[in-house]
Amino acid sequence: MSDTATNPRKQTLDKDLDKLVHVEEATTTVARGLVAPGLGLLFLALTAIFAATYTFGEPRAVIIIAAAAIGAYMALNIGANDVANNVGPAVGAKAMTLGGALLIAAVFESAGALIAGGDVVDTISKGIIDPAAVGTPEAFVRAMMAALISSALWINLATWIGAPVSTTHSVVGGVMGAGIAAAGFSSVDWAMMTQIAASWVVSPVVGGVIAALFLAFIKTAIIYQDDKISAARRWLPLLIAIMAGAFAAYLTLKGLKKVFPVSGTGAAIIGFAFFAVTWFLAHLFVHAQSEGLENRNQSLRSLFKVPLVISAALLSFAHGANDVANAVGPLAAIVFTVHESTVNTTVTIPLWVMVIGAAGISIGLVLFGPKLIRMVGEQITKLNPMRAFCVALSAAITVIIASGLGLPISSTHTAVGAIFGVGFFREWYTAHSKRRRAYLERKGVRLKADNGASDDDDLEIELQKTSREEIARRKLVRRAHVRTIVAAWVTTVPAAALLSAVIFLVLDFVA
Q1: What single-letter DSSP state applies at residue 94?
Q2: What CA–CA distance (Å, rounded) separates 402 from 33?
Q3: What pLDDT digit, counting tens, does each position of 331-389 carry?
Q4: 488 found inside a domain
Q5: Which of 140, 143, 343, 507 has CB 3.0 to 4.6 Å from 178, enough for a Cys bridge?
Q6: Cα 437 to Cα 286, 428, 446, distances in angstroms
Q7: Phi, psi (deg, nearest 5) at residue 477
Q8: Domain assignment of residue 348, yes or no
Q9: Which of helix, strand or coil describes residue 2?
């Protein structure tokens, strides 16, 4: 007879201990989920204390301290949502680990914000409203507060549902809503708003087309060549050089204006110089890296990994240089208005305000960024180093083209649109490419249907004809994610505007 049968107390004790173990495990799981929000709240509290050291003794210090905490909350959300577009493709392509991506992005985002972040910003987000129309400095401060709170809340919601959205559009919507609530519809520059609305379409479409064109070139010139390694040695240095020239021109125009001002012609010359030097060096690099590699697609992936990691770092630097103003621009406007008791269209961002923005973006990325990084890199469509390289290259080139034409464009919409473009192009290519079919037939390839999960990159659909239902089942871009993201894009400005108007009216009533 067993011990438990003869000792009912022991059996009861075992059950109780087992329950305690389960309760402890459940508590640990819940506690782990609360770590990130807890650290985020700690950062907001430290930000308030940090701001208090710079405003100690001032008559309206409480307003600045509250605004600093709200700006820090905005920065956390930018890091959680927007930065995923820079490193997500590299993580999805397995060119770097999630931990490595978080480290690289945090370092380069902070460097871009502190080294090349603009010291003078347009406090009303590109002229959306006329500050003079808002009225008193106190009303302007409330409008900027409402814009910060609403845009931060909207980005937080978008992150929660897994939709990468434009932080610039969120701020624009917040400023517009507060301006309408404070001074009516006539205070809004509707011509500028029309351009911004047009960028909802222009950004993803142009980004997607450019990414698809580069992927088509890589497939034709490298992947489906009989001697892949020789083809890579011929064409990959050119692609790397284009990337270097594009990033050099982009960073010169948009990211380094604080360090030294350069005209469009000067940026083009710098970009061409980097293109030429990089082309020469890339020949040496690719030739050395390709020694001894087998003639297969896996070898090509290894050749694209290093350029992809570098592009992710450069995108993060450029993002930090340009988007930190989204977090601290309204905060800087509040600080200036409180100090000077007047409203101005442009203000200088104090260093301590810039530090809050840079730190918040990096901390938000580390604490909350992995969710969106996985979404962008893994869940929209399957990426490898070649496809992710096309996404990064497309993002840089599209922003340069838009800047040259004077068009407002969203880096988020561009990068995600490039991922859409790569995925939709693959769907079309796998079904219609005669070159691919001839290449596979030459190699005698016949695949077994496996729901698009083949180890080889572009062999997800069999060569034989399949039914429409089977093709639909194997779509390479997840439509549910596309619908969610596009819906979030379309509703960002009106949702942020409505929320901001309500918040402004509440603040106005309380005041």
Answers
A1: T
A2: 41
A3: 888 888 888 777 766 677 788 888 888 889 889 988 898 888 888 888 888 899 999 99
A4: yes
A5: 143
A6: 29, 13, 11
A7: -120, 125
A8: yes
A9: coil
The pLDDT value recorded for residue 108 is 87
Whether the model pTM is above 0.85: no
User: Whose structure tokens read 């996985």?
Assistant: 374
Coil, strand or helix at 448: coil
**337, 343 in Cβ contact below 8 A?**
yes
Q: Is residue 7 part of a domain?
A: no
The structure tokens listed for 222 are 């490298």
Going through 297-367 in order, the beta strands assigned E by DSSP cover 346-348
Indicate the SS3 state at residue 82: coil
User: What domain range is 444 assigned to?
Assistant: 37-510
Domain-located, residue 50: yes
Residue with tokens 């931060």: 152
Helix axes 98-116, 351-374, angle to 10 degrees: 150
The two tokens of residue 213 are 């064109």
**Euclidean distance between CA atoms 30 and 370, whole angstroms:** 18
Burial (CB < 10 A; 0-12, 13-18, 19+), residue 193, is middle
Nearest Cα to Cα of residue 362 among 107, 114, 91, 28 = 107
Closest to 250 (Cα-Cα) out of 127, 112, 123, 75: 112
End-to-end alpha carbon distance in the chain: 78
